[in-house]
Amino acid sequence: MIEVHREICAYCGCCVSVCPEGALELVDAYLDIDTNTCKNCGICVRVCPLGALEAKK
Amino acid sequence: MKREYDVLVVGGGPGGALAAKTFAEKGYSVLLTEKRPAIGAPVRCAEGVGKALMHEFFKPEDRWVAAEIEKANIIAPDGFKMELEPEKAGAEVGYVLHRKVFDRDLVWMAAGAGADIQVKTRAVTPIMEDGAVKGAILNQGGIAQEVRAGLTIAADGVESKFARWCGVDTTVPLREMETCAQYLMTGIDIDAHATEFYVGNNIAPGGYVWIFPKGDKTANVGIGVGGDRCKPGNRPIDYLNRFVARNFPNGKTIELIAGGVSICQPLPCTVANNLMIVGDAARVSDPLTGGGIYAALYTGKLAGDVGSKAIEKGDTSTQALMPYDETWRASYLGKALERNYQIKEVFVKLNDDDLNAIVHSVSKMNLSDFNTLNLIKNIIAANPKLAIKLGKAGLKSLLDSF
Description:
Chain A: Residues 1-28, 29-57 form the 4Fe-4S ferredoxin-type domain. The complex is a heterodimer of chains A (57) and B (402). Chain A is an alpha+beta fold. Helices cover 18% and strands 25% of the residues of chain A. Chain A has one domain: Alpha-Beta Plaits (2-Layer Sandwich), CATH 3.30.70. Chain A has 2 helices and 4 strands, in the order E-H-E-E-H-E. In chain A, the strands form 2 sheets. Chain A has a two-stranded antiparallel sheet with strand order 1-4. A two-stranded antiparallel ribbon of chain A has the order 2-3. The radius of gyration of chain A is 10 Å and the shape is globular. The mean pLDDT of chain A is 96. Chain B has 402 residues and is α/β, with parallel strands linked by helices. Chain B is built from 12 helices and 18 strands. Classes of the chains: A alpha+beta (57), B alpha/beta (402). The A-B interface holds A 10-20, 22, 25-29, 43, 46-51 and B 35-37, 42, 44, 120, 122, 157-161, 164-165, 170-174, 177, 179-181, 225, 227-228, 230-232, 235-237, 256-260, 262.
């Protein structure tokens, strides 16, 4: 699953745009991940400008 | 907030605001929703826009303009600086805006024209009936409410979730998402009227570093990196920190801005039944520069004009809304996006030797008739080896076709 390090995330939405499953949603100032839709592909982890996301096994 | 409107606009950036204003001025009932509690904040932008392009829509208020730009400098990987003089810099001569003020004023104008505005109100699901959008479920203060509309404008920015929920694939490929970080810095020694662009694979792979002045000793200092080049330890924030440590060790950072800008081609179709997609959500930001303000203003206004006619005729089907899609594609914007996409495809593959050769050769040119196309043609003429490379990438044939 993808973990959001909220102390790092600046809620910019960069990750939302690249998610092939549409599993991410930026709700005002926090990132919401739909764990039912997320396939743990890690594209969001790669693109984050600040390194706020982490894929956990 | 009523339960039914002629037009629902999802997103309160420049595209949404100008669409809402245009529909309201034509007498239609409009609701503009913004998921954030404030319009224009947090900023996700380097805030630069061409003067001539801006003037198509507004004579800017003084309070929108942080700095007027008279020239641009491009710095090669080897440190060589090329100056683009005012008369040569064309559309690159522009404004650096205060987006917090600008965006807010545009929404203010939409409100003044009669549009209803709701902030901290997020569209969570479109209402879909018989393959057409009929408004959206809006979440406001934790309560979901149905708001029906004859026409919905997806102006929800780079995330572009609304159109996606309506069945339009808005996903940006990783390599075509420019991942960005920016500091608003003060106490730095800069030319208050020149933008600077640093290129190079060690500085900003697949992108560039920008310095956009916002007044005396103050500037947006930011970077965009190609999504596929972003790695732990080499993320935009890491490149930016290294750049700032080298160039502005005594500068003070008063704001951190993160963001993403798509550098892909526009959506194959920007309308659907009762739906129009504008601005970043339509993927119309410039693939070469990353600029998106003009594109948002242009498509927002156009959506208002075309959409109003469609409502008047009582037909907002895909077919009836197609003139919007066709018009922007045939416009200056559409053509610039197409050309700059091709140039970008070459740019991201250039190594530092190529980039050095380009910047050095351009500085020696006497470009009386400066424009991007002319610049590229001159670069090719001056760099035979590079010309072969560009030819292989298909750029030469593209340029010859103009």
